[in-house]
Amino acid sequence: MSSELGVSDAKILALADYADSPHYAAAERAALAYADAITRTDRDVDDDPFARLRAHYTNDQIVELTATIAWENASSKFNRALRVPSQGLWRGGESAVGSRQSAEDEA
């Protein structure tokens, strides 16, 4: 999905190291750290992620970001419980849409 929106493969591949990657801006790092904090279910979200978010986002944007992260976490749990496989939306350098388009072009 991200690659369809113009996110580079290098940035997608650097996601696991977003905190130190030059591919991510400070606002993106704050949002990703917040997503990590929300996703961890063994503890509450500390004040630090909120403080980092407030440096870059409005309250309304933080609410929207929180809702999106919560939705993605719920979807992940739902799919895992029902053993719904990955839709293969990104395949390391070629998006699924690009793959389908290439296959259609060859047919």
For the record, the count of structural domains works out to 1
CATH class: Mainly Alpha
Mean of pLDDT: 83
Main sheet?
Answer: none
* Rg calculated over all Cα atoms: 16 Å
* CATH fold type: AhpD-like
User: Can you say what the CATH homologous superfamily is?
Assistant: AhpD-like
The outline comes out as: globular
In the CATH classification, which architecture applies?
Answer: Up-down Bundle
- Percent of residues in helices comes to 55-70%
Main structural class: mainly alpha
Number of strands: 0
Low-confidence stretches: 95-107
Give the count of helical stretches. 5
Tell me the distance between the termini. 24 Å
Strand content: under 5%
Topology as a string of helices (H) and strands (E) = HHHHH
Task: Describe, in plain words, how this protein is organized in 3D.
It is a single chain. By secondary structure, the protein is mainly α. The chain has helices spanning 9-13, 26-39, 47-54, 59-81, 96-106. It has one domain: AhpD-like. It is built from five helices and no strands. Helix 2 (26-39) packs antiparallel against helix 3 and helix 2 packs across helix 4 (59-81). The longest helix is centred in the middle third of the chain and has 23 residues, at 59-81. It starts with 8 loop residues before the first helix and ends with a helix. Residues 95-107 have low confidence and may be disordered.
Question: What would a concise description of this structure say?
Answer:
With 107 residues, the chain is mainly α. The chain contains five helices and no strands.
